[in-house]
Every structure is written in structure tokens, then in C-alpha cells.
Amino acid sequence: xxxxxxxxxxxLLAEASELERLQLAAIDAGAIEVTTENQRLIVETEPQAVMxxxxxxxxxxxxxxxxxLVYQPLRTIDPGRDQENVAALLxxxxxxxxxxxxxxxx
Length: 106
Prior knowledge:
By secondary structure, the chain is an alpha+beta fold.
């Protein structure tokens, strides 16, 4: 928990002509970071603002694909040669019924 920050994360698809308008709507509603990848808009918010920003985007007619609270790493590391071991550990954790979520900063 000390190596991660909780953030709101909203993702939606939009026509290229709508991206700028949606970016501005998200920023006006309180988004702290807005990025685009192809026609996907990715909006990062403070945890308490995720629903407000989601509602503002929906009010523009946008269809939200996902809106969640996530933990983002404060800093990342490169596992280097241990990448296969890290992948094996994550696979083993995923196989455990008691494990519901795993966060990694690599």
C-alpha cells in the first residue's frame, strides 16, 4: 500500500473528432490526467472524483467502458533477469483461491 496510490480510472472509446471535447469535459469535471491511445480515452482521477467525472462524461453522451478504483505504483522497477520468476510467482498467486487481487510495480 505504501508503494501504490489509489486512483480512479475511467476508459471509453470515442470517435477521433470527439476526443478533444471529451478530454476537456473530463478536465473540467476534475480529472488529473487524460491520455488517448488510438480512439481510447483514459482518464485518471482522485478516488473521490471518479463518479463525478464519469457522470460528466456520460452527460456528453459518451459510453463508458469501465470506471474503477485502481492502485498505481508510485515508482516502477525493472525485474531484469528475474522476469520469468516474477511471472511464475504471479501465476502461482493467481492459482490460489484465497488471493483476489495482486498489485505489481514492474
